[in-house]
Amino acid sequence: MAEFLTDVKTLRERARQEIGKGPITEAYGADLDRVIQVCNEALATELVCVLRYKRHYYTATGLHAEGVAAEFRQHAAEEQEHADLLATRIVQLGGEPDFNPDTLTARSHAEYDESLDLIEMIKEDLVAERVAVQSYTEIVQWLGDGDPTTRRVFENLLSQEEEHADDLRGLLERLPRDLS
Question: For residues 112 and 103, what is the distance between their CA atoms, to the nearest angstrom?
Fold first, then answer.
């Protein structure tokens, strides 16, 4: 049977002494303030993606728009779930999720897009997904073992962002190049 690195009595004493820190204990190995900042940047990214996908959903037109718009709607819902997960994690870490619309696009890794051409919409969404994949991969690597819970949150987001990128690439491959 493996032994604890710290005896149980000491663990209990520390837990009582710093009860106000919630889940953050001496074992937490990351830069807490920076992790919260990175999570807020990712939250802004997800919110911009929700808005971009919603716009594309409502403005998609043309012969092939129905199926593509359905994909946009689904991605918007999943990006909202990502935002909710990040906001929850920020609060767990003792931070405040930043939903300020005045600074949202400046904090986001992804860009908002107002394309009206269906192919351009898909391309811009694919670019944003690729940015998220790259950003989240770097965040997962940066977190390492310092904050395994936040790392798992980003690993799960990364998996779905990769799926989104694959979905969009598939749409581009299936659609005729000239939709006019």
Answer: 13
Q: Report d(CA 96, CA 117) in Å as an integer.
A: 37
The architecture CATH gives domain 28-173: Up-down Bundle (1.20)
CA distance 103 to 108: 9
DSSP element (H, E) containing 74:
helix 65-92
Q: Taking Cα atoms as reference points, which of 132, 134, 130, 109 lies closest to residue 41?
A: 109
> Which SS3 state, helix, strand or coil, does residue 79 take?
helix
> 80: which residues sit within 8 A by CB, 6+ positions away?
46, 50
Contact 125, 55 (CB under 8 A): no
Phi, psi torsion values for 160, nearest 5 degrees? -75, -35
**Binning pLDDT at 50, 70 and 90, where does residue 170 land?**
very high
Give the predicted TM-score (pTM) of the model: 0.90
The 10s digit of each residue's pLDDT in 6-38 is 778 887 888 888 878 778 878 889 999 999 999
